[in-house]
Structure formats: C-alpha cells, structure tokens
Amino acid sequence: MLPYGRQSIDDSDVDSVVRALRSDWLTTGPEVDRFEAAVAERAGVGHAVTATSGTAALHIAYAAAGIEPGDEVVTTPLTFVATAATAALLGARIVFADVDPATGNLDPKAAEAAVTDRTRVVAGVDYAGVPVDAPAFRDLAQRHGLLFLEDAAHSIGSTLDGAPVGSLADLTTYSFFPTKNLTTTEGGAVVTADDDLAARARAFKNHGLVRDRAQQRFPDEGPWHQEVHTFGLNYRLPDVLAALGTSQLARLDDFAARRAQIKAAYDAALSDLDGVDIPVAPAGAAPAWHLYPLRVPAQRRREIFESLRAQGIGVQVNYIPAYWHPVFEDLGYQRGMCPVAEDYYRREISLPMFPGLTDADVECVIEAVRKAVAG
C-alpha cells in the first residue's frame, strides 16, 4: 500500500541522532538550543519554543495567550481536533466559523462575524500547507483587540507574499509528526516575535518553573531553589529528537520543491476530470504542500476512496469537521453549523504527497485516480 504520507530519513539524519545519543545530553541540552535557533531563523522571528508534539505546541500557545475559562476562541472546523481541543482544555468556548470554499482555510469574514466581547484568539489553520489570509486576520485582531494564532502544522516552509509562515501571526505553531513537512518523530514548536508571549510559552512547557532569582518570591532559599508561580506541564522536546529536527530543517527546501513537483504533476493529469476540483492557492502564496486535497463528487466519495485503497493507494480524508466529534456534540454543537466546511469534507480525498514519492509512484496514483473516478 502506497501511504498518503511518509517521513524522509537519510544518513545525515541518522548520524545526527547518533551523535546526540553519544553526547552528555539526552534532553534540555545544546541540541534543543540549536534546533530552536534554527527554527526561529527559518520563521523570521526572535523566538522558537519546541514541544513534544504539534498538539503540545497548540496547548502552549493558548496558555501563553492567557486563555481562561469563559474566553472564546474562533477557529475553523476543517482541521484536526487538536486545534480546538487544546483551547477547550483551558476552559475556552470554541466558536467555529466557516471556510473559504476554494482553499478550505478559515474565512476572515465568517471569523469576524463570530467575534464577541468574550473572544480572545482567532486561530486559523494553513490547510494543506496554504497560508491563511494573514493580513486580513491581523487587521481583524487589531481592530478587536485579539491575538491571531496561526496553526501551521501543515505549512513550515510555506510563504505568503515572500514572508515565511511563522512571521505572519502573533503566535504560530508547527507540527513535526512523521507525515509533516519535516519530522522530529513526534514534536512541535511555537514561534513568535513577542518577548512576553515567548517567555510565557517557555514557562508553560517547563512546569511553570521560575529559576531567575530576580523573579522569585523567596530568592534566598538556596542555590538549588526554583518556584512555580503558575501551573505548566512537561512538554520538553529531547535533544535526540531536536538533533533530528535540525538535520531535517536543512533539507526543508528540497522537501518543499519535490512536493511542488508532485502537486504540478497531479494538477496536469487530473484537472480535466468531471466533477473533480484540484487544490489551489491564492495569489502571493507559495505553499509547501503537505496534502493534496482532491475533491470529488460527494455522492461518490466513498466509492472512489475504496477503489483507490483497493488499488493499493493509501488515500486519507482530512478532516472530519471538528464539531462532528461526539465530545463537541455532547457540548451542544450541531451538524450544519458550517456548511461550506462540511461540503469540503464530504468531497475531500487526500492523495499521497511526500518527498519520497517517485515519478513512477506518481503515475500509479494518477492512473488509479482516473480509473476510480471513471468508475
């Protein structure tokens, strides 16, 4: 079965991990510092705070934003549930707004219509690697006194009008899961240009520990002393995984270039199919395509999906609308709230998209799709 996503590991990655394993530090050491500096430079901001997963990065980002019970977070339903769940775990009420029918990204107008005096964060997701309309969301956030969070789990390596994803929002989160644009096996990061947000993020990911004597309540306790002023968690990424991330980051441009080649090949071969829509990006966006979200006739989606699986093509669907999950249904959310997102979901099939796909693999996918759509 040809998977829809797969990591790309070479000898340089293995060597980096082995060096870390043989060093004096397995965690909280120099490899973490090195990776964070490289991620921040790539993002074009001053701070990167690594974490154990993309989900952890979201949790850290919402905590840094000061989300508390009763606050509202406006976000998209066309995402993995973690985008909403991590804010809900801090007590936020999640307000889902509909998406742009062309890109699947959160629609700025729909998001603004959902803003109330309790809204604290608007969180867009770079679906498939396509950057959200950051200028519109920055403007919305500024006018309403909100923070703009960009869930860039799909889009490290993407740019918008020449600016890297990571520099576009108040807070940006990355995921380094194996199917993502680069991997640390599990892992993620929060990036920001804001010193205070970075400090709060760094504290939350390390139990909330305060080691700076100038900030301690009882600084004369002894040289061993540390304090917790606000609760946090252990979301520290180990040096071994950070070493892999630094090695992978050096290959990110090559990964993105190969993904673009695959996207172009799919586009050329599938754009003539009746009832099928290929993924698009707005002017000024240069996505590092994480997914290839093909949309097919809704009434035939399952038939086409099962045909592709039977032909050995490991397609996937991204994503079940977040509020369809029973955990949100039990909170009173109902289907039909975001009809554009639901239509997108009902038609979507993610084709294989990863740098290790050979030209022959791409041709196999194309042939299988054409056969499945033809019926």
Helix and strand arrangement:
Blueprint: H1 11-21, H2 30-43, E1 47-51, H3 54-64, E2 72-75, H4 82-88, E3 93-96, H5 108-114, E4 119-125, H6 134-144, E5 147-151, E6 159-160, E7 163-164, E8 171-175, E9 188-192, H7 195-204, E10 209-210, E11 227-228, H8 239-249, H9 252-270, E12 285-286, E13 292-295, H10 301-310, H11 326-329, H12 339-347, E14 348-351, H13 359-374
Parallel strand pairs: 2-3, 2-4, 4-5, 5-8
Antiparallel strand pairs: 1-9, 6-7, 6-12, 8-9, 10-11, 13-14
Helix pairs in contact: 1-8, 2-8, 3-4, 3-7, 9-13, 10-13
User: Biggest sheet, strands in spatial order?
Assistant: 1-9-8-5-4-2-3
The count of domains is 2
CATH architecture term of the largest domain: 3-Layer(aba) Sandwich
CATH superfamily of the largest domain: Type I PLP-dependent aspartate aminotransferase-like (Major domain)
Using only C-alpha atoms, the radius of gyration works out to 21 Å
Explain this structure to me?
By secondary structure, this protein is an alpha/beta fold. The model has no long low-confidence stretch (mean pLDDT 98). α2 runs parallel beside α8 (239-249), α3 (54-64) packs across α4 (82-88) and α10 packs across α13 (359-374). The protein has a seven-stranded mixed β-sheet, sandwiched between helices. The chain has helices at 11-21, 30-43, 54-64, 82-88, 108-114, 134-144, 195-204, 239-249, 252-270, 301-310, 326-329, 339-347, 359-374, and strands spanning 47-51, 72-75, 93-96, 119-125, 147-151, 159-160, 163-164, 171-175, 188-192, 209-210, 227-228, 285-286, 292-295, 348-351. The chain has 13 helices and 14 strands. It is globular. It is 37% helix and 14% strand. β2 (72-75), α4 (82-88) and β3 (93-96) form a beta-alpha-beta unit. The chain has two domains: 11-249, Type I PLP-dependent aspartate aminotransferase-like (Major domain) (Aspartate Aminotransferase, domain 2, 3-Layer(aba) Sandwich), CATH 3.40.640; 252-374, Alpha-Beta Complex (Aspartate Aminotransferase, domain 1).
